[in-house]
Amino acid sequence: MVNSDIWMGSGATVSMIPEQKLYLGNFSGITTPSSGTNSIATASITTAGTQILSSETVLTDAEIDAGTGGSGSGGELALTLSAHSTAFTFADNDGSVYEDGSSNDGSIRIYADNGDGTETSIDVVFADDSGLTPSLSGDITLTVDIAEDAEGAEIAEAVRIALVDSGEAITATRSGNVLTVTNTNGGYVSNSTETTDDGVTLSNTAGGVITAVVINTAGSGYTAGTINVASSGGTTGVITITVTSSSTNQAVIALNSSFTANFTLLTNMYRGCYLNIHADADDALTDRVLIQSNAAGTITVNNSLAEAITQTPTDYYGVIEQYGAVVPGYNASNAQLLSDHWIGLATNIGIPSTQVQRQEMNLLGGGTRNYIYQFKTMERTAGGSIDLNANSFWPLYYALGVKNISLVEGEESASVSNQFALSSGSGTGFIYHPSADVIHRTEDTVIIPPLPPDSVYAHSGYKKIPHDNMDTEFITYAITPEEGHQLPSFGLEYTLKKGDQNTTVAVDASKENVYSKIYPGTVVSTLGLSASTDGPVTMNLTLAHKKTYVAPTNYQTLNGVTDIKEFINFGGRQGETESLASTSSLDCEELMRPFFFSDGTVSMFGQDYIRLASFNLNIENGITETAYIGRYDKDSVNQLNGQRAYSLSFTGHVTDAAIFNELQNQLATACSTLDGNEIVLRFTKENGEQLELKFMNYMVSSANFPVNTTERGPVMVDWEIIPLELASCEIKTYWAIQG
Questions:
Q1: What does the alpha-carbon distance between residue 98 and residue 101 come to, in Å, rounded to a whole number?
Q2: Which of 153, 561, 300, 200 is nearest to 570 (CA)?
Q3: 138: Cβ–Cβ under 8 A, 6 or more apart, which residues?
Q4: DSSP string of 718-738?
Q5: pLDDT beyond 70 at 631
Q6: What per-residue confidence (pLDDT) applies to 377?
Q7: Partners of 505 in the β-ladder
Q8: pTM to 2 decimals?
Q9: Are the CB atoms for 187 and 119 separated by under 8 Å?
Q10: Where are the beta strands (DSSP E) in 393-509?
Q11: Phi and psi (nearest 5°) for 635?
Q12: Which stretch of DSSP H or E encloses residue 397?
């Protein structure tokens, strides 16, 4: 059915996506397409399905050919399936709640997957000496003795021990009186049940959803098409394959299972990014290749890898470089990104335009004056801008390039289990390592993106950024200029929803209800910072972008968030709900309030200027767009830094001729920061948030003293200063700048 509703501006959302180095963990394997005809080139999930049995985790010739109608041989696809889990909540025993209502002992039944599509039923009976033991029909019966006054946590622990000792393919973890039982094997099993009289409540999470597909062997003789994966009463899974008709010089890297258990990569989002491959033993950079394409859990590169990597891929780990590497969100079923980062108090956002170049041709003959043939050449993403009332100065990091975390007030030690997970945690949080100055997000115990391997920081020394008291728990960033060829980048997500789809997060197949575009590799080309009397400080950004990416069906927009108030940094590091629920005396409005001109001071030539009416700072990065041979697409470019230039302009009332004298001065002022003559711009909000910028090595380039024959009031002077060097930039804010 076609939705005839018109797209409305009220349904448009633009959000920010951090880009960071993506540590992928040690590779699971590397395969190369067969040199035979019609070998399997790619395999991707079209429909993840539900209730798929563990017997369906390997697809061989018969299953592949049945779906595509081909007659191939030698191919094999491996599926990763989500596992069934149940959360049991145990009540305190009052002598009757663990009976079944008929004076029999109550029980729970759990199903363990046997790895071949069959299941074993495990009955756990609660023996509390107050009833008769029921007659149960499970394959295994376990008995747990509980006292009539036992607490829920004690009962949960007794059940956990019994299940672990059973030797079945399940794991059991406890937190208080809640016991979570998960099948070790992926796949669908029957839901757990209980027969107690309110002693146990449970919540089942069905397994059997396809989370990843890997080409074990490519085979030959296949036909491109779709493969149906049988379901046990649920939704059929669908795998789509493409084939290559000749040998290809490609290597398909299967990603670490710990990575794919938490993250699903957007298909071909990382095409054109650089993949660095390191030896796990000593972290030595062994190879660096461009990514040709990627699927949910695989990356395809040119098969020019060092022989040692292809022979023992599990001895090597991968890192996708930051440029264009939008951080994936925590979701192993559907692809999503960390696109729930608030941009700020935006007064205007210019959406980049996608431009496809077209070429028309005359051909010999044809007998017409019309062009005979036309075709499309390169695709480019142009423009893009953001205008802000500055309640945070986060864009200065992206305009200048290097971020150091100099102070986190109230920081605590973070307990890191491995590069993928914390030892414990709940909800949304942030951690960082003082030696790396890079912030990672956490969702429960999952670290996003994963940390460097053990040998880099030994996973010790990480700090948790607090969010309990926003009065004092600010982060101080020292920003310095990047002198290399590339600035830090981020991504933008532009999402449109029809009026009745506000609570919908997934892009629909026809893209008529929810539509989303992603602009990875966004860099700040120019930044303007300005303020005038009684107004807020404003920031104006012009942007450059790597490419335009149209989100596919089932992409989870805005990281699954439907309320902008829950965006990261909206009134608090975890969104508005953080500041409203915290012990802070500040409320959301105070944190979100912009800086004002009245909050600022300006010092230059060794004195404070207190009679300024306006000022403007402009940073120009001289960005150049460059495309290269071998990028594997026609729609992406690299953004390279050019000449950096600063300029400052002021309007105000002056009391002496210092500015005019500096105009005629033949020497630059403040060539050294030791002489105290730096230009200092400082803005401080009442709650303690602050920006301080210091410039040195500057000259006055113009100073205009007007003469007005009709107005005898104060003389307003305009002057411009060109500094060559930024001495320091310090931002004190509650914002978590993750990139």
A1: 9
A2: 561
A3: 109, 121, 122, 123
A4: EEEEEEEEEEEEEEEES----
A5: no
A6: 73
A7: none
A8: 0.71
A9: no
A10: 401-408, 412-413, 416-418, 421-422, 428-432, 439-443, 446-448, 463-465, 475-481, 490-497
A11: -120, 5
A12: helix 395-400
Write down the pLDDT at residue 66: 74
Terminal alpha carbon distance of the chain: 41
Q: Which domains does the chain have, with CATH numbers?
A: 85-205 (2.60.40)
Strand residue runs (E) in 533-673: 538-544, 549-550, 600-604, 607-609, 612-620, 624-626, 638-640, 645-652
CA–CA separation, 468 and 456 (whole Å): 30
Distance, CA of 99 to CA of 452 (rounded, Å): 51
| pLDDT (0 to 100) of residue 275 | 96
Token pair of 44 as six digits = 């991707």
In the structure encoding, which two tokens stand for residue 218, read together? Answer: 């490519």
Contacts of 455 (CB under 8 A, 6+ apart): 280, 282, 283
The 10s digit of each residue's pLDDT in 424-458 is 988 999 999 998 899 999 999 999 999 999 888 88
CA dihedral 129, 134, 138, 142 (to 10 degrees): 10
Residue 434 gets which letter from DSSP?
T
Query: Do residues 515 and 361 touch, judged by C-beta distance below 8 A?
Result: no
What CA–CA distance (Å, rounded) separates 642 from 393?
23
Task: Go through the chain and tell me how many residues it has.
Answer: 739
Contact between 184 and 82 (Cβ < 8 Å): no
User: In this predicted model, what pLDDT tens digit does every residue of 96-117 receive, in sequence order?
Assistant: 889 887 778 899 999 999 988 8
Rg (CA), the chain: 31
Asked if pLDDT for residue 403 goes beyond 90, the answer is yes
CA 617, CA 607: separation in Å to the nearest integer?
19
pLDDT per residue over 264-303, tens digit each? 999 999 999 999 999 999 999 999 999 999 999 999 998 8
Contact present, 321 and 276 (Cβ < 8 Å) = yes
Contact 166, 140 (CB under 8 A): yes
Q: What are phi and psi of 76, to 5 degrees?
A: -155, 130
CA quadruple 444, 155, 87, 577: dihedral, nearest 10: -40
pLDDT at 397 over 90: yes
